Amino acid sequence: MSMTSTSPAAPGFGERLRTGFGLMGPRHQRHTLPVEQVGALSLPIGDDGVVAGVNTEGQPAVLGVNRPTPYDIVLIGGLWTAQVLALRAAATGARVAVETGRAQAWMPMVHAMGGGQNGLAVYDVGRVPPQGASAGTPVLVVRDCGMRPPRGRVVSAPWQSVLTLLPYLSPVAPRLMRQARLVGIQRVSPDEATEIARVIGLPRPEMQSLPGLQDGVTLWCTDRDRQYVMTQATDSETGLLGVARRMD
Fold first, then answer.
1. pLDDT, tens digit, 9 for 90 and up, residues 116-162
2. In this model, does residue 25 exceed pLDDT 60?
3. Burial class of residue 156 in the structure, from the number of CB atoms within 10 Å of its CB (0-12 exposed, 13-18 middle, 19+ buried)
4. Closest C-alpha among 230, 234, 171, 197 to residue 52
5. Residue-level pLDDT at 34
6. First and final CA of the chain: distance in angstroms?
7. Which residues touch 225 (CB under 8 Å, ≥6 apart)?
């Protein structure tokens, strides 16, 4: 459409452009709601994040891993759960950087997601480059570095969360748990359960439950809340990763 017309503008048109309101759009009647109907108005607003599974009431349990502040997570558990969380984080639009000494265990996921071009990349231990996380491109760094993970070069930062996977309780676990904002615990031995309870202040009933947790069940703990979550894989996740398991 030509913009050289000399037709006079409608009154106030130039002023509207100067003040940033733009062009006049179509005019419609206003949407109104009688006061007596306001109580019936509801919006489907829920938590935002990665669906880790369902809680004991059968409701979705969501981990808010994409945050504007640094966020550290420790998972004392199995590779299967960490991989499900990584897949689901990538599905929310986050980029996932996996730091691991067993790249072969992660490569099927990389291939399934397009060879690392669609949100998930794998790096050797100590080789994770700066990720450039932002509100538009949040990042989850998964550290699968064994029992004694070295201090990471890439740490938690705004819009960049770090999940450290520990297969068992190790000498570095107490320090990592104290630093973490969120701790997930899967089935552990009675001695490990006792030490974990001491470090993060678990009540006795939760401590006693840890040695008997089923595969796929995680007790997620924050400073103020504790929640048992069952991670239920989708058909595609099961086809890629197999069934839930504590050991690999």
1. 566 899 999 999 999 999 999 999 999 999 999 998 889 999 999 99
2. no
3. buried
4. 230
5. 61
6. 64
7. none
Fold of 50-240: Rossmann fold (3.40.50)
Task: Name the strand (E) or helix (H) holding 48.
Answer: none
Paired tokens of 217:
């069940």
Q: With residue 228 as reference, give the H or E element that holds it.
A: strand 226-230
- Closest by alpha carbon to 238, among 92, 105, 84, 118? 84
Question: Can you give the pTM of this predicted structure?
Answer: 0.80
| Strand-strand pairing, 95-100 and 139-144 | parallel
Reported as type and span, the H/E element at residue 106 is: helix 103-112
DSSP string, 128-187: PPP----SSS-EEEEEE--SSPPPPSS--BTTEEEEEEESS--TTHHHHHHH-SEEEE-S
Amino acid at 25: G
